């Protein structure tokens, strides 16, 4: 995603989006199994619930951190412009990124519009760079601090049938 530029074609950004999409999709459910493997059979429901909670909690932080990075980078890019209009509206446009997109779309093709697009794309790129570094640090910490746990074990549960099922009376007569 860091490779996306303002001049990227539709097939390029579609391909760039497919790669992390497949990766996230494959990992999304697999992590649940690894969390459950480290828990005792009694604690499995609690491990699954805590996994879901912390995943949602982490997504909240990821969105918040990404939003702050985007807003600050966009604001700085617009404030460093030589165009007085960009400097004047930098605070408002950085705060309201969705309305900023509509403003940029409404502008006619001009150097001003090109500068806005470059600032927007650079802000997105900054998010991906920070998140990539964070993912690499997390990966290195996981290699160092997480021990190997086998996923092969027998399920011991309190759920199930209490009594053996007996054949129905009709089945007993047929077999006699």
Question: Please, could you describe this protein's structure?
Answer:
With 176 residues, the chain is mostly helical. The chain has one domain (10-146). 73% of the residues lie in helices and 0% in strands. It is built from six helices and no strands. Helix 1 (10-37) packs antiparallel against helix 2 and helix 2 (44-79) packs antiparallel against helix 3 (84-95). The longest helix has 36 residues, at 44-79. The chain is elongated and about 85 Å long.
Q: How many whole angstroms does the radius of gyration measure? A: 27 Å
* Helical run tally: 6
Shape: elongated
Order of helical and strand elements: HHHHHH
Structural class: mainly alpha
Q: State the share of residues found in helices, binned by percent.
A: over 70%
Number of strands: 0
Mean pLDDT: 82
Summed up, the domain count is 1
From the N-terminal CA to the C-terminal CA, the straight-line distance is 72 Å
- Major β-sheet, in short? none
Beta fraction? under 5%
Residue runs with pLDDT of under 50 for 5 or more positions: none
Sum up the structure in keywords.
176 residues; elongated; mainly alpha; 0% strand
What's the arrangement of secondary structure elements?
Blueprint: H1 10-37, H2 44-79, H3 84-95, H4 97-106, H5 111-145, H6 169-175
Helix pairs in contact: 1-2, 2-3, 2-5
Please give a quick description of this structure:
By secondary structure, the protein is mostly helical. The chain has helices at about 10-35, 45-80, 85-95, 95-105, 110-145, 170-175. The longest helix has about 35 residues, at about 45-80.
């Amino acid at each position: 995603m860091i490779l996306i530029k303002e001049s990227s074609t539709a097939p390029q950004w579609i391909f760039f989006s497919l790669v992390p999409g497949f990766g996230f999709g494959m990992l999304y459910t697999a992590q649940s199994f690894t969390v459950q493997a480290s828990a005792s059979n009694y604690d499995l429901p609690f491990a699954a619930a805590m996994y879901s909670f912390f995943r949602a909690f982490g997504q909240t932080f990821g969105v918040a951190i990404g939003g702050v990075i985007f807003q600050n980078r966009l604001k700085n890019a617009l404030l460093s412009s030589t165009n007085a209009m960009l400097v004047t509206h930098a605070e408002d446009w950085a705060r309201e990124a969705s309305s900023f997109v509509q403003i940029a779309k409404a502008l006619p093709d001009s150097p001003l519009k090109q500068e806005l697009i470059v600032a927007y794309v650079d802000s997105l790129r900054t998010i991906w760079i920070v998140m990539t570094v964070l993912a690499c640090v997390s990966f290195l910490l996981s290699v160092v601090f997480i021990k190997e746990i086998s996923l092969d074990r027998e399920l011991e549960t309190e759920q199930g049938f209490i009594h053996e099922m007996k054949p129905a009376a009709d089945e007993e007569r047929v077999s006699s």
